[in-house]
Amino acid sequence: MVYLQKVQAEEAAELHNIMQFYLYEFSKYVQDIKLEANGTYKPFDLEKYWSENQFHAYFIKLSDELIRFALVESAAKSTPNTIEEFFIITKYKRMGYGKEAAKNLFSMFPGEWEISQLENN
Question: Per residue, what are the HEC states of 36-72?
Fold first, then answer.
């Protein structure tokens, strides 16, 4: 069973860790993504997910295993909800877990949604 777990500020390091895999996979589509001198990808600025009410970070888990994450901006008065980033580790792709997690997000934040994807992804 897939479930969403809100990422707490003190769990930012764990989110940054899984984001390294996301950036690695995404680098084949965006040539500007490069490793830093220390051998890691530049971390995202995640502060808004703990300081602003409309931004939400979730770990997506299968039982107790961390299998992905989702970053969401919930709707303001005239804008739709937005999936900013959404990632599943490779071994769990094409098993329906992403669809299940997305449906959970849609239920949590009712209303219109804006979802985009790079064409070659």
Answer: CCCCCECCCCCCHHHHCCCEEEEEEEECCEEEEEEEE
pLDDT tens for 25-52 read 888 888 899 999 999 999 989 999 999 9
Burial track 89-113 (b if 16+ CB lie within 10 A, e otherwise): beebeeeebbeebbebbeeebeeee
pTM for this prediction = 0.89
Outline where 27-109 has alpha helix (H). Answer: 48-51, 97-108
> What's the distance, CA 25 to chain centroid?
13
In total, the chain counts a number of residues equal to: 121
With a pLDDT cut of 70, the percent of the chain lying above it is 95
- Mean of all residue pLDDT scores within the chain: 90
86 backbone dihedrals φ, ψ, rounded to 5°: -150, 130
Which residues, including other chains, have CB under 8 Å from residue 84's CB and lie 6 or more apart? 71, 72, 73
